[in-house]
């Protein structure tokens, strides 16, 4: 297996808004591919936020997204 086949690929092809006990939230469909294997999971934004805030700081400075990226996607 070459390096390209062993590297995971992740995309978010769709999202749906849900309502539960008067609370609205978005659920994202996350598609993961590694080589010829492919699967999907459903995650809420809160789960991404928790992952981001509890990540290991071993590689500090190698951020995937910067505050500038976040501001740009929010239109700030």
Describe the structure.
With 76 residues, this protein is an alpha+beta fold. It has one domain (3-74): Phox-like domain (PX Domain, 2-Layer Sandwich). It has three helices and three strands; from the N terminus they run αβββαα. It has helices spanning 3-6, 45-53, 67-74, and strands at 9-20, 23-34, 37-44. A three-stranded antiparallel beta sheet has the order 1-2-3. Strand 2 (23-34) and strand 3 (37-44) form a beta hairpin. The chain starts with a helix and ends with a helix. GO terms for molecular function: phosphatidylinositol binding. This is PX domain-containing protein. It comes from Pavo cristatus (Indian peafowl).
**CATH fold label:** PX Domain
Largest sheet features:
3 strands, antiparallel
Q: What is the structural class?
A: alpha+beta
The count of strands amounts to: 3
Low-confidence stretches: none
* Rg over alpha carbons: 16 Å
- The overall average pLDDT, rounded, is 79
Span of the ends, CA to CA: 43 Å
- Residue fraction in strands: 35-45%
- C-alpha geometry: flat
Instruction: Count up the domains.
Output: 1
Helix amount: 25-40%
**CATH homologous superfamily title:** Phox-like domain
What is the number of helical segments per DSSP (H or I, 4+ residues)? 3
Strand order of the largest sheet: 1-2-3
Assigned CATH class = Alpha Beta
In the CATH hierarchy, the architecture is 2-Layer Sandwich
Order of helices and strands: HEEEHH
